[in-house]
Give the backbone structure.
Amino acid sequence: MVCESWKARLDTYLDGEVPEQEMRTFDSHVRNCPSCSADALSRVQLKRAIQAAGKRFTPSAEFRKRMQQNIAPKPRRSFRLRWMLAAAAAMVLVAGALTSTYLGNRSGRDQVFSEIADLHVATLASSSPVDVISTDRHTVKPWFQGRIPFAFNLPELQNSEFSLLGGRMTYLEQTPGAHLIYDVRKHHISVFVFRERSLPARLSDSALQRDKLSFNMETWSQGGLRYFVIGDASAADIDGLAKLFKAAS
């Protein structure tokens, strides 16, 4: 019964709608409560399954045919009117194509960012967040050899406030990648690394604040790889760890 008040707001927490001042308290509770951690992991998996199912619908050929028939010029109208209608239809199609491309790219980017956040939450809620446990980068990096189809460098953390906790394999839209977990002042930060060309959407280098996601996040492309740094730490800490990775690469 102690966790009932937490579980009642768990969906709000996973959707990033908890006020910022309560986010850290919620994060700490989920990480340290086995019951809420398991419930959070189950809900994240359900959310991802629903998102995947939503992608399965595509307009049928019959629907396309009906739309083409609706915009086709009528045979009894004058040549000038037919020409004007055809030109207008072409403009609508071009505008629609441009809009669809833009919205599709934006939707694809938002989907990737959302899934990265889900992976971060699900991992922290897991009873075994890492497969290789070590603070030594020379132990963690070789562990990924043969498990993912690319190599990457880990930064030297000496004289920094960051510490490496370990790593694990992960997948984004069936694309294998590396997931590293770092700690800074009791905050966990996830670093994801994927092969750029294997990702389902075009992504631009950017830093996203809490008004976009439940966490601060920075992403960039370097050497054919796409990096994501995400966590409930401050934007300055996220940027600091990102700079260490950029220098190491």
Notes: Helices lie at 4-7, 10-14, 20-32, 34-54, 61-71, 79-125, 137-143, 235-248. The beta strands are 132-133, 163-172, 175-184, 187-195, 206-208, 216-222, 225-231. The first helix runs from residue 4 to 7.
